[in-house]
Amino acid sequence: MNPIETWSVEKSLDLYGVRLWGAGYFDISKTGEMQIRSGSGISGKKVSILEIISGLKERGLEMPVLLRIGDFLNSRIKLLHDSFNKFIKEYNYKGKYRGVYPIKVNQQQQVVEHITDFGKQYHHGLEAGSKAELLVAISFLTDPDACLICNGYKDQEFIDLGLFARKMGLNCIFVIEIPSELELILERAETLKIEPRIGVRIKLTSSGGGQWAASGGDRSVFGLNMTQVVELIDVLRAKGKLEYLCLLHYHIGSQIPNIRDIRAGVQEACRVYRGLAEEGAHMSYLDLGGGLAVDYDGSSTNSPSSRNYTLDEYCADIIDTVIQNLADTDFAHPTIITESGRATVAYYSILLFNILDTCKFEPQPFNGKLPVDSAEILKNMGEVFNTLNQKNFQECFNDAVFYKDQLVQLFKQGQISLRERAQGETIFWNIVVEIGRMMVKSKFIPSEMKIIPAILSDIYYGNFSVFQSVPDIWAINHLFPVMPIHRLNEKPLREGIISDITCDCDGVIDRFVDLRNIRETLPLHELREGEEYYLGVFLVGAYQETLGDLHNLLGDTNVVTIMFNEEGGYDIVRELEGDSVADVLSYVEYDPKAMLNRIRKTAERAVSHKKITAQERREIMDAYSDGFRGYTYFER
Ligand SMILES: *Cc1c(COP(=O)(O)O)cnc(C)c1O
């Protein structure tokens, strides 16, 4: 059977769900190569990821590589503003929309620079949650019409930096996260004679559900409860500074899968907003925080990896809810701010790596025949193997598991030999493999048998580290789309899980996106002699980079950013070499130079004990010093 003839690119698009999670940014060429589109939609230019990889190879950049597509940032920002502006017009909303990008979601300079440059036309601003992020924001934001939202706990230095930014003309707004910040802000403002703009972060009863439910809601550690809000107003009024208060902020969590929760949050916040305005605060901004979700599994449901709404529904619901909740008041429609991080940067990055090797699950063959003098337990197991069929496989599975336990017991009691135990295990695994084949044709699979495909699957060893590049897979069981980026015109004949090159059993990807369920194995192609096999983990632009760590001392990967050009091709606009071995060693307090000196001493001792010659010493030392300069990943 020729795997190309029985397969089509169309089938790969379906199998891996590309059209569902890809948001229009990805396609597959007729020759089975995954392509990137310059924007979301069918008209965009396309380039093959494999072609990009070969270009990088020629430039001497090794796998793994984090590939960033600058055009996707532009596209996300444009879509967000277009959608809000569309409904502002359609619903006759009297206020404006201002987006801000929360720096913590991907702090890389390139990202912030790109967003502030491209975002200028929309007055897209930044959100900072620490002094370092505030400095980033002040140095990259130049647009006085964009918002600079200061969340996070603020000390005097933070406040001073923000006040000076305000004095220089930036629209810097301090969001009070804990009540005691107010006093410090008022005191510094008075000392420096700069009028601050103040917002207040509130705890809503509504929670965002999903993975991050605890970051919003009553029990959230951030924000003020209603008693504290009232106290804040009283303090401001007593000091005659109520006009400083202009913004209401909340954040009910990231990746909110259900539109109902989003609506409930806006609704509750609108009531508080009215309350503040009624108290006499000069309210003009309603900041809804983040939460706009990404459909990682493409299911369009309220599962934690998805969302049951589109961007348009998100924007329409927000505008509509604000209008309704302010309808019977004279208060002007506020400027609506959202702090969408994930939805802005998730698509931007793809982790690409090569497969180093595979390990197949293949027990010794068993033909059903046993010598007549075999142990009773082996005969029983052989009997199960020989009677197994499509109708009784569930029963046979239970029997096989029962006998396997008995086999181990007998071995422990010294009643069967090591060889007999090995023979029994071979029969057991042959039964499981047969059952695995039969299960594929069966409609109903009992839950205790659902692990069988995963047990029988191949292991593909990928040249990357889960902990460094996709830490959320390990930390919170996050799902990202994973798939081969070429050979997609061939039927994938294997089922596998992916192991990274850390020596940690948690360094695996063994949950994959699927429309209905979570898949436990991924359809993959057989490796070919002398040819690389490349996989991509998609939608990894949000939160992964700086959360990643140096487990097993695997460092930052190489990073390459491309932008589409006028000619329909692409330009590499930025290239960052990943960490060298010496780099990662110095992060954990080693001094590579001193280490090399120690090795030199060992080599010298070996020379004086005549274990190596002086010439050999030189070769050995060259190899070690190259080792320090090398990439931390597997190099071919
Ligand atoms: C993390 C965070 C965001 C970003 O949330 P996303 O769901 O990634 O859009 C926005 N605002 C605040 C206050 C945050 O802490």
Description:
The two termini are 32 Å apart. Helices cover 40% and strands 16% of the residues. The relative contact order is 0.12. Strands 4, 13, 14, 15, 16, 17, 18, 19, 20 and 21 form a ten-stranded mixed sheet that branches. Strands 5-6-7-8-9-10-11-12 form an eight-stranded parallel barrel, surrounded by five helices. A three-stranded antiparallel sheet has the order 1-2-3. Helix 10 links the parallel strand 10 (245-249) and strand 11. Helix 4 (70-90) packs parallel to helix 5, helix 10 (259-278) packs parallel to helix 11 (311-326) and helix 13 (376-387) runs antiparallel to helix 14 (393-412). It has 636 residues and is an alpha/beta fold. Among the domains are: 93-340, Alpha-Beta Barrel (TIM Barrel); 376-453, Up-down Bundle (Methane Monooxygenase Hydroxylase, Chain G, domain 1), CATH 1.20.58; 582-629. The protein is built from 22 helices and 21 strands. Bound molecules: pyridoxal-5'-phosphate (PLP).
